[in-house]
Specification:
- By secondary structure, this protein is α/β, with parallel strands linked by helices.
- The chain contains 14 helices and ten strands.
- The protein has a five-stranded mixed beta sheet with strand order 7-6-8-5-9. A three-stranded antiparallel beta sheet has the order 3-10-4.
Length: about 325
Amino acid sequence: MNRAVFRMVGVLVVAAMVAVGCGGGGGGASGDVDLSDADLVVGSKDFTEQLILGYITLQALENAGANVEDQVGLAGTDAARQALVGGDIDMYWEYTGTIWINHLGNTKPIPDSKKQYEAAAKADMEQENLKLLEPAPFNNTYALAIREEAAEDVGVEKLSDLKTLVEENPDEATVCVESEFNSRDDGLPGLEKEYGFQFPKGNVALFDTGTVYQRTDKGDPCNFGEVFTTDGRIEALGLTAIEDDKNFFPKYNPALEVRKETFDQYGPQLEEIFTPIAKALDAKTMTEMNARVDVDGELPEDVAEDFLSEKGFVE
């Protein structure tokens, strides 16, 4: 190898290293994947985290050349699930615990995140022909929260303490929840059964998600409120999530769930795009994105676009 050729090889090696370094997210940009022949429909549920995940999916697919129909922001869990099973959408992000308990009818969660994912993925493919892609590391489980100034007054540090509160001071045992949490087996009915108490009749108030946080922060009409653990409003409002000392709430790691017919056509491309995206969605990242929407008032689609760009998933 003469000197000119040696220098040229060196330049190409350096250029390749720079190109790899620009990726930033530990995986390739979705623009490197060709989905120009794909017509896909992306859905999501209707709360902030789901809207962000939906727009991340939609924008990544569009960057790969796909023609994407926007069905982000469907009504709650049941509506999104029915749309996927019925073929009205091709994919949305679902949580492993929700699949296992709410959709497949199991009564006991699996405490280990990896085993919970594997069991949910296997069963949902066998029963519903749905393919669960790699999960994100963050766990957006349920919790009951209380404003800091009230926590000491009512003497509740862990969920087991609620039984004593209900027995000795029932007027203080008030809780704000969404209608979905009020009826799910992995929500309030299951929690009361597991911990052996029941909130007094008339002490359970139903609101939408945003109002639950506001009312819990004000202590009116409830001392306790249902929260999602990756919601940015917990820290912003100074709320404290109460310890689930019996590990009642399941693991809720999200993963993009895809109809088998769609996966059979585009599986390798979808895994190439979304495996690195899922790995980049840790708890800190997701909580910060949720706070930008719920606390700072930014649009979910703008937050999604920033995530994809900053991590190098779109150019």
